[in-house]
């Protein structure tokens, strides 16, 4: 009779879990280290996420997440090069190796995760599809949008969500497809379309840049789950781990009360979770093949998750978003760090 160990070994071989081929991990991680610069794909320009300021410096939540990864890898948030990409360009740029990571308001979906040779990493923002209409259209319910021309970006989940919802409700609409969200914003203000369909955070970001934002209404209904997160290639598990746990470190920091202003004081904390996060215990850095202070470098550069959200999207910004689902789980939201131990 075969032993239990033999049975497990046979099952693993049958499932392809054991292989004599050498592991291919480390390709992207090593390339970034050797290059000395992270190449990060971002949106071509959406306020609050990634938008160059008057000096050409990229600002926004996504841009800062790129800087956070550079800080994790090099201890220097400036060691990053931004590559602006449209929705149509983004996955090809990552597949071809033009960029190391995509952080560009990208919804994590099963088909994207399984069919593109890419890996969806983890959620950094929860959102949902919505519509923005002109206030003078007097539309208070999406069913009042029958017959409207709707500006959409091709190659996005929003294009599909809009078509599915109108079809389900036996309503008509005419799509006006434009790659750049800024072009959609211009078209709405010029009257070439009656509404924009995209994720609610993007709608708020676009409206904040309008000359007369009060003339436009974001309808309250949400029609989909749109969890945003970074995307990497499947060629490197080590790089995947760095990206995943850098985002997790931002959430863990907020959970533990660690922020950009109290890092030094927190190094004397008796709390084992805090001591690991701030590198007094080098366990986490060793696991990622990074400096023990990697998370300290990230938080010092861009803050914890709460600081990051409030600085770019929160109520005190022009975008003016409540955190909603992006609150910590202890405050009724969905943000929850996996245990970092």
From TrEMBL:
What CDD domains has UniProt attached to this entry?
A: PBP2_BztA
- A Pfam family (short name) is SBP_bac_3
Which positions are tagged coiled coil?
none
Signal peptide (from-to): 1-25
In its keyword annotation, does this UniProt entry include Transport? Answer: yes
Q: Which UniProt keywords apply?
A: Signal, Transport
Output the Gene3D superfamilies linked to this UniProt entry: Periplasmic binding protein-like II
- Any idea where the Solute-binding protein family 3/N-terminal domain is? 37-259
Q: Which family does it belong to?
A: Belongs to the bacterial solute-binding protein 3 family.
Q: What is this protein's record name? A: Amino acid ABC transporter substrate-binding protein
